[in-house]
């Protein structure tokens, strides 16, 4: 075999040389030799499409400024006449508070966030009780959620009315309702470190609760529960600054001042100034049981803090004319995400009247716009304050609340 191969090798080599020297391409009827170099030199037979270059990364789109509507009311103070009538309306089985709040139930539906000071603790392990050691029933808190309240300030002078056990019973109740945001009273240090926030219209609001008073009561030594007290200024400062780090708007509910006076104390004004310096954007005051002024505190950078020193009672069964006048703070907060600035662009005080018939019967609420001279003349409080009338309400509101915060 090897000899045969080598015998024909010259012929094979010659044939290979001849084939490599030319290519035959059929054109028309005949074949013409074409140089192999010419076949690979000019344009390619076909071109492969090249991908378009990727566009440069675009800047993240900054959202339009957000306008958030916040509403807040004062002390939800549940005296015995209120929970007893609720029990009677439930036929003696449970508590039906609907009647008391029926006339104002629509006031909060258009708010993005609504806040209330829950003055009477809600501790289901204990029976309801009235002054001086309050306790309300679970049905009350459930109704407040139905009305649209989101934020419940628990830090007030009645938060320890049922002792440490009442604190934990109350916190257990609210923990079973995760839609509720509670401030001011905490289960332990870890719970305290969890600053409460709510996002609305893309803006983040943080909420802090503080009380200057606990009616001389205190937690037992070694208790893990935490109540943020007004005397703890360094702690409050750190709290506000930490809240501003995680939110666009910081709201402080604070229980302070002297009862039954329309004039803020020097201590209130001092703390308001400090809270503003530390970064609080809105300060909502409670405790005096009567209304106090609303004002702005200017800051060095040109921004300002809104302070409502006291919104008075939301509901109660107290027995003097001035304590029947409370109010709702209704405001718009504009958050500019591009500049990072926050501004109160609208603020109105809406008077709300607590009404009851003689003998504290049929306790209920009215917006002042819906209140009549006939109702005022029949108010049970006239047994203690005969001056109570529609004009009395109007004059009180106008003398305390600045015209810029009163609607037409």
Determine the structural class based on helices, strands and strand pairing: alpha/beta
CATH class: Alpha Beta
Q: Quick one: CATH superfamily?
A: Metallo-dependent phosphatases
Tell me the major beta sheet: 8 strands, mixed
Q: Please state the average pLDDT score.
A: 90
- Rg result: 37 Å
Shape: globular
Strand content: 25-35%
Name of the CATH architecture: 4-Layer Sandwich
Which helices and strands appear, and what pairs or packs with what?
Elements: H1 2-21, E1 23-27, E2 30-34, H2 36-39, E3 66-76, H3 80-89, H4 98-101, E4 113-117, H5 138-147, E5 151-153, H6 163-175, E6 181-183, E7 185-186, H7 189-193, E8 196-200, E9 203-211, E10 226-227, H8 233-245, E11 249-255, H9 266-278, E12 282-286, E13 294-298, E14 304-308, E15 313-315, E16 325-336, E17 341-357, E18 361-367, H10 373-378, H11 390-400
Parallel strand pairs: 3-4, 3-15, 4-5, 5-6, 9-11, 11-12, 12-14
Antiparallel strand pairs: 1-2, 3-16, 7-10, 8-9, 13-14, 16-17, 17-18
Q: What would you note in describing this structure?
A:
- With 408 residues, this protein is α/β, with parallel strands linked by helices.
- The protein has a single domain, classed as Purple Acid Phosphatase, chain A, domain 2.
- Helix content is 27%, strand content 27%.
- The strands form 4 sheets. Strands 3, 4, 5, 6, 15, 16, 17 and 18 form an 8-stranded mixed β-sheet that branches.
- It is globular and about 95 Å long.
- The N and C termini lie far apart (119 Å).
């Amino acid at each position: 075999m090897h000899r045969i191969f080598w015998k024909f090798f010259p012929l094979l080599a010659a044939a290979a040389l001849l084939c490599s020297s030319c290519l035959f391409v059929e054109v028309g009827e005949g074949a013409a030799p074409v140089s192999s170099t010419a076949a690979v030199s000019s344009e390619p037979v076909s071109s492969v499409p090249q991908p378009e270059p990727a566009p440069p990364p675009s800047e993240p789109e900054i959202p339009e400024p957000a306008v958030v509507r916040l509403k807040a009311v004062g002390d939800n103070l549940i005296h015995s006449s209120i929970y007893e009538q609720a029990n009677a309306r439930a036929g003696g089985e449970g508590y039906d508070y609907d009647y008391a709040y029926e006339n104002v139930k629509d006031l909060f539906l258009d708010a993005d966030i609504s806040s209330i000071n829950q003055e009477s603790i809600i501790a289901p392990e204990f029976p309801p009780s009235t002054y001086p050691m309050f306790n309300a029933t679970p049905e009350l808190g459930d109704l407040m959620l139905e009305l649209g309240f989101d934020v419940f300030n628990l830090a007030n002078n009645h938060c320890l009315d049922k002792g440490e056990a009442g604190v934990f019973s109350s916190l257990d109740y609210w923990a079973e309702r995760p839609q509720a945001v509670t401030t001011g009273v905490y289960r332990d240090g870890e719970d305290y470190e969890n600053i409460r926030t709510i996002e609305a219209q893309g803006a983040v609001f943080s909420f802090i609760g503080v009380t200057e008073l606990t009616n001389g009561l205190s937690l037992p030594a070694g208790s893990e529960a935490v109540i943020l007290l007004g005397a703890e200024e360094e702690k409050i400062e750190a709290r506000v600054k930490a809240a501003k780090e995680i939110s666009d708007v910081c709201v402080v509910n604070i229980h302070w001042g002297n009862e039954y006076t329309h004039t803020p104390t020097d201590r209130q004004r001092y703390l308001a100034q400090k809270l503003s310096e530390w970064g609080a954007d809105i300060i909502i005051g409670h405790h005096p049981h009567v209304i106090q002024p609303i004002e702005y505190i200017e800051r060095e950078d040109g921004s300002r803090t809104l302070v409502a020193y006291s919104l008075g009672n939301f509901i109660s069964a107290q027995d003097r004319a001035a304590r029947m006048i409370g109010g709702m703070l209704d405001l718009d907060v504009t958050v500019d995400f591009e500049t990072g600035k926050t501004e109160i662009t609208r603020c109105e005080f809406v008077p709300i009247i607590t009404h009851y018939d003689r003998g504290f019967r049929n306790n209920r609420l009215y917006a002042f716009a819906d209140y009549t001279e006939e109702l005022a003349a029949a108010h049970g409080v006239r047994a203690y304050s005969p001056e109570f009338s529609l004009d009395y309400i109007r004059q009180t509101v106008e003398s305390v609340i600045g015209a810029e915060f009163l609607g037409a």
